[in-house]
Amino acid sequence: MGKLLFAVLALILPSGAANAINPLGLWQNDDGRVLVKVEMCGNVLCGKVASLREPLDRQGRPKVDHMNPDPALRDRPVMGLTVLHGFVRSRDEPDRWINGTIYDADSGNTYRATLTVRPDGTAELHGYVLVPVIGRTSLWRQVR
Question: I need a labelling partner for 138 at 20 to 30 A (CA). Which of 18, 28, 32, 98 fits?
């Protein structure tokens, strides 16, 4: 599996990206409530909920995507839910992933997003509406 992943990354990464920091793995969001497993989904970066600090709702049942704008999806579990999708590596900045989306299960909103991996083992995830200046950046920490 590792050799296959390396081969896929070698095909999709622009030259010079070999020195870039690897965004794959487990990441904790800025408030520590969620762990997201970031991986390659085909030729794009995606992330799925791997763990929740509070996985159960007030009735003791597993949390579901109850705020989803599509009523047909409101019963799907939050655990395993894809919350990051469609990120491609920037050609100009190898530690930056662009053109992605982030889904906020707490609100049911999906935002455009960029992900910038920093050398200190953190990542800036910037979600925005329409243009990047109308948005919010959160600092995620890689979990080893």
Answer: 18
Residue 56 and residue 76 in contact, taking contact as beta carbons nearer than 8 Å: no
pTM for this predicted structure: 0.82
Instruction: For residue 123, count CB atoms less than 10 angstroms from its CB and return exposed for 0-12, middle for 13-18, buried for 19 or more.
Output: buried
Task: Say how many domains are in the chain.
Answer: 1
For the stretch 20-40, pLDDT in tens is 678 999 999 999 999 999 999
Q: On the CB side of 35, how many CA atoms lie within 13 Å of its CA?
A: 12
What is the rounded CA–CA span in Å between residue 100 and residue 86?
4
Q: What is the distance, to the nearest Å, from the Cα of residue 54 to the centroid of all Cα atoms in its chain?
A: 19
Which CATH number characterizes residue 122's domain? 2.40.128.520
